[in-house]
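User: New here, please read:
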Amino acid sequence: MEYILHYYPAAMIALLLIGFLGCRKSPRFKKPLIIMCLITNGVYIVWRFGFTLPSSGPADTAMGVILVATECIGFFQLLIFYTLVWKEKKRNPELLDDQDQWPSVDILIATYNEERHVLKKSVAGCLNLDYPKELVNIYLCDDGKRSDIKKLAEAFGVHYLMRENNEHAKAGNLNHAMSCSSGELIVTMDADMVPLPSFLRKTVGYFKKKKVAFVQTPQAFYNEDPYQYNLFSGANIPNEQDFFMRRLQAGKDRFNAVMYVGSNTVFRRTALEEIGGFATGVITEDMATGMLLQTKYQSVFVSEVLAVGLAPETWTDLLKQRDRWCRGNIQCGKKWNPLFLKGLTPMQRLLYFDGILFWFFGVFKMVYILAPLLFLLFGIHSLKTNLWSITSFWLPAFLGSYLSFKAVSDRQRSMSWSHIYDTSMAPHMAMSALSEFIFKKRFDFKVTPKGVNTDRRKFKYMTAYPCAILLGMTIAALGKTLYDYLILHTFDINVTSYNLFWVLYNMAGLILALLVAFDRPRFRSSERFSINNTASFSTSSSDQKHQCELKDVSDTGARIRLPYTNDAEVYYQVDSLVLDKVGKVPVQVIWTTKDGEDIEIGLRFEEMERELYIKLIGYMFNEENAKKADREKRADTLSTAVRFLMKTEKSPDAFKRKYVREAFQGMGTLLFPAASDQNSHQIVIKDISLSGCQIETDVPLDINGNVLISIDEKHPDQRLALVCWTKKKRKRYTAGLKFLDEHSGGASA
């Protein structure tokens, strides 16, 4: 044993570093690195079983068994993970041949309470599909029985379906739609998903093989999830679901175990009919339906993003979604245990079992968080060892896991962010998993009221308090350790050091977990795509076209930029925006702002005809615009926390476009409360809304101070305003004011 302790860690660490450095030169080093990772982790597990189980008391023994069992499960999941990423299945595209043989397609959009403008984009996206129109039928399957959704279907010329009751929820809705349609293929789309024009052309060809039951494409998102948005990290980390939706699904494709994820999927109708339609009796019908089909048929995964939708926008919504997925997967496992389901291969059984086991990650993470805390606070040992032994066996295993994961993930995911994701959701997911598995009922956690305040951030304290309690315990444990070291002199480096390491490691995850619970307000009703294309606009006074740069666009408005000229009136008369392959879109100018030598103009789209709207959605939702950053960069814990602190607004920003700004450039007068000739100054009004304005002046203003202004010609009467922010450039000051008098309507800007 002593011989091993001297040479094993140094040899393995050296080999791991060589393998990792080799991966940077050639992908051939990845597989040897994975093998070394599994060896070091296997040795660690053997050592844990044979030499480290505590037996000094019932509490120590119980905690020791729980921790080592959790680590064994982790090793099993590690084996499955590296089996999936060992080799990716490379599929050649299956193109459609003779158009006379193309199958008919029914597109089912299941909806219950989604807003009309969300569904409108989805329907328009389906109407843009590059596939013979006579072969496609679109069905709005409305379990909400809403008259406005029926009118939407009629306006776009698609089928509207509703049923007598809402039995079996989404699965029942889809089965009802199956009974009302007859297409050879069936596409399921979530209400917020918008297919790209090539969706059918790049998926239908795989059904030339008779054994293919369904083709799954990734779920991708065109908005930022709460981790990206609340932590100001949209440009630094991919969407939290991307790694599974793209990388792990591609690995499952090798074993005919692709998971049906509820949307962006094409089915063969006859295969669905053979298993009785979409699975019912569980709240995640998708996982069960895919698994049942794979007992008889094959599945295909197309790794290209062919549809995009909306990720949960608030931290509370994300937790609700994961609670539903967690409980639904456990329900599926209890109703159709994959280990005994007839027709599955051994590898399919393991992969589906691992998929269900994954949803206990909250329980496993809580064990890892609580084990070192229980030792530091109460002296409960979870393992019996010394510092040199645990370093010799744990360090190579940890380093092997870290380096191999870094090598195979290709910056799509890091261990640090996996730790943050798991930690932030662990308390709630642990309760969801245990309540569903043991108690067979849901224990609801309280959430803050729906709706985001448009003026300030909102801390979701009712969902964050479990992590706050754990962070408090962590601080108490650190304080007690310091007291033991400085006052009692009972600090034992052999057993305290490694517990201290894990407490600090978990502490970083807990801090980020609390930060993500600060929901930022989302001011736009519709997500925008950054475009940076050339466009043109025309005005009410002339048919002449003016060239401009289109900065971003949504289905409700756009932002354009062009050089500023002295002929300012032209900017306020814009009445149409001309886009390639779309045409002339009617617009209204909402705001203007001067930026250096250029001017930016905010436009709101007016009501447009059906065909024009469909073309606009096609312009926005294409392969190029759907691409989002899918690699991590500058995303470590420290930089994320600093980014959060630097960018979080310390006071409400009065100019977040809650109210429409008038396009206005003019002069005004700044008056201080004791008005006199000595304290009035000429100012430039840069833009204005019902509730505030932006001014440029040559005198400094105090933030949170009150001023009086008059706006020459536009509003000659005096207005009382609050100074919300100031910015100095050379000897001029730009300031944001919020009106406080009766003209503001009592609202903030």
